[in-house]
Structures are given as C-alpha cells and as structure tokens.
Amino acid sequence: MYPAVVTRVRNLLSDIAGSRLASTFVLMCGLAAITYALAIAVEPVLEYLALLVAVIASIGAAVLAAAGLSRIAASQRPTVAIPASRPIDSMVDAAIARTHRRWTEPWLRPFPTTGEGERRIVLLPGAAYHLAEIAPLADELESRGYEPIICVGEPHWGRTQPGLFWLDRPTHAVPTTDQLQGVSVVVTMKDWAGYKTTVDAAKGLGILTVAIVEGVQDFGDLHQPVQHHPYQTADLVLCQGDNDVAALGDRPTVIVGSNRLEQIVRAPAIPHDNRIALINVNFTYGVLTDQRDAWVQSAVDACKVAEMPYVLSIHPAAKAPRSWTNTTRIPISSLLPHASVLISRFSTVPFEAMARGVRFIYHNPHQERMPAFLDAGNSFEVTSTSAELTTALRSPDSGEASSEATKAFFARQVSIVDGATPAQRSTDAIESHLARQHR
C-alpha cells in the first residue's frame, strides 16, 4: 500500500511539474515580482500592471489546484448528477481537460537497456482504458518470471496519461529499433497508427508481436476516414470472443476474453432507483463526425418528449459546443452504474452496459453499417428516428438487459471462462507461441 501511495504522489507531482500550465504559472509569478519591484523603483503606474499580472497568476494557480483536486475526486465520485450550472461546469471541464490532457508533457523514463532479453516483454497501451488489460497482464507475466516493460508513445500520451496516474508501475519511452534487440515479445493494443512502426521493427528483428483487440472494432474500416487495417500486422491477435475471430478471418488468433469487462460482470450490481438516460457521444477521430450534432439533437429531443432526464457523456477526445446542456466529462464507466438506460451508437460502451445489466438502446438514425450490431437480432432495442427513440424510452424496460438473447450476444463478443483470467489466458497464448518460435 505504501509504495502505491508514493508512486501516485510522485506521478501527480511529476504531472504538475511537467505541465505547461505550471510553467506558465511560475513565469507569471516571476513576472509579477519583477514588475512590482520596478513599480516601486520607477513608475507608480506600473503597480497596477503588477496587480493585474498577480491576479492572472492567482487564477492560474486556482485552475491548477481545482484540476488536481477534480482528478482525485473524479475517481471516487459515488453518484451521478445532472450539472446544475453550465458556466461552472464548463470551467471545471476546461480545467480538467486542459491541465490533464492537452497541457501535460510526457514524464516517461528512458527505456531500460539492461535485463534478460529472453524474458523481457514490451507492453504498449494506447489509451487509459487499455491499462485495464495491460496492468493485469504485466502482473501475470511478472509472476511467471518475465520482465514486463510498459511503454507509451508520445502520440498516445494524451489518451493514456490519465490512467497512468493510478498505475503502480514505471512508464517508459517506446524502445528504438536498436533497443528492441534486447526484447523477446512486443504486445500492443493497436498494431496500426502510432505503434505500427514499432511492430514492423520488431517483426523485422524476428521478435514475436502480439496485438490485443481493444474492444468492439470496425475491422473493415467501413466508416474510417483513413484505412487502418486493424490487427492485420501483428503475428498473433488475442481476441475478446468469437465475433473478433470471425471478423479477422484467417489471421492467427486466440480467444482470451477481456479483463475489464469480466471484472464488471463478476462485480456486484450497484442498486439504485434512478430514472436517467446516459447518452454516449462518441463521434471522434474523424469517424462520422459530420453526423454528431444531428445524432445528439435526435437523442436529446427524444428524451425531452419522453420526459426522461438525461446526461450527455462527452468522449475525452471531443469538445462539446456551449449550446449543449447536461454535459459531463466524468468517465462514462463511472456513470453507467447509476443510469437506467444507455443510448449509444456503435461502441464498446454498450457491452459494458450489458455487463452491468443496464438497458441499452442502439440509436442509429445516421445508418452506420456495423455488422456486429446490425446482425444482433433481438439482443437489444434499435431505433432509427427520434420518434422511435421516444417510444422506446416511454416503454418500460422489457427485460432486454437480462434476456437470454442479450446474454448470448454478449458471450459472442466476450468470452468468460471459470478458473482462468484473461491475463492468464493471454500469458498462456504468448508462452505457447514463444515455444513454437524457439523450436
């Protein structure tokens, strides 16, 4: 417990010390002191300028402190409430987002150059939620005598950094090609985009490369502005369930489940009698972003007509227009246990809702073409207009969240095996393929 607390305090201090906001604040304080000294020695009128600079510096300090406290509080927030004041909510959102995502510089340790190459395994998360898979895998690998090394590429820093605050392991820079020669396996959650170069370099050196499917996936790049070809590069793909295997065709795959979703399934439900719709606003990275505003308006109009209280959960990579009300940046995983219904487009979040027994409505007025959801039968409700969504919200929950059809649909996406955790199943698969390589 003590080392964990020390690690978290160290990471927080490093984060604050490395932020641009902190640097700006220190600069403001220095400027205020110099200006005030000049005011006394030269011109009284400069005293007013010094006061102005001091006020700006104080505001910077307040924002920094508020963001730091919000970061700690957000992880322990027990309930969900609709924001009462949009101006205040905007300021808090801005403080958290800018201080802890956009205004931080990576505090990464250099990649370690010493160790046993045959036992060293590089782990590459690309977002904060990836750590729910990477961290248990690191623990399992370590228990079997391997040396797991968690690395984060700078392009992925903004999305990964919030989760690193709670990680009890050091985080390193991504190894260069020369440094990779002392590694036996590279495991990544994404074998494209920012990490593809590392995967290609590892394969060129004969190093086993493994990709873990991060969640429900647009395997065919049906709505991607750029063709990513996900999970087509690594030597081995660790899948969540049968849906992934079917979508990946003849790629080498092993089903291992999902640590994050399995933990949710096995956790006790949080009892509540809330009547509130959680709207998952997930139009990011150029995917159907031109449809976002119309989709949100359609969902909000339905909630208003149905007299259903609602909260708009904004994706961490997105920014909500000031005209939107009832928005929040509280992580959607913290909101779901307190919602009565989830309204979402194609996303991993609906599977988390199913794992928690939360009613899910797939709202698809923009007619996206995702086979995993379009071929789901009666596993959940599907609406294509605001009027249809209104009717669904007015109807009592018909039991979809706990129906046999929903359970079967969830089981095709996420495999759960008694007696073996996803981390154990993943490590077994890695060891098996390593043994084949060494034959």
Characteristics of this structure?
single chain, 439 residues, alpha/beta, Rossmann fold, 3 domains, 6-stranded parallel beta sheet
Which band does the percent of strand residues land in? Answer: 5-15%
- Could you give the distance between the termini? 42 Å
Count of DSSP strands: 12
* CATH fold description of the largest domain: Rossmann fold
* Average pLDDT score: 77
Count of folded domains: 3
Using the CA coordinates, give the radius of gyration: 24 Å
- Summarize the biggest pleated sheet: 6 strands, parallel
- Count of separate DSSP helical elements: 17
CATH architecture of the largest domain: 3-Layer(aba) Sandwich
Task: Describe the overall structure.
The chain is α/β, with parallel strands linked by helices and 439 residues long. The chain folds into 3 domains: 2-102, no CATH class; 117-258 and 421-437, Rossmann fold (3-Layer(aba) Sandwich); 269-413, 3-Layer(aba) Sandwich (Rossmann fold), CATH 3.40.50.2000. 45% of the residues lie in helices and 11% in strands. The chain has 17 helices and 12 strands. The protein has helices at residues 2-18, 20-41, 46-74, 86-102, 131-143, 157-164, 177-180, 196-204, 242-248, 259-266, 292-305, 332-335, 349-356, 371-374, 386-394, 404-413, 422-437; strands spanning 120-124, 147-150, 185-188, 208-212, 236-239, 253-255, 277-281, 310-314, 327-328, 341-344, 359-363, 381-383. The strands form 2 sheets. It has a 6-stranded parallel beta sheet, with helices on both faces. A 6-stranded parallel beta sheet has the order 9-8-7-10-11-12, sandwiched between helices. β7, α11 and β8 (310-314) form a beta-alpha-beta unit. α11 packs parallel to α15 (386-394). The chain is flat, with a radius of gyration of 24 Å. The protein starts with a helix and ends with a helix. The model is unreliable at 14-21 and 68-104 (pLDDT under 50).
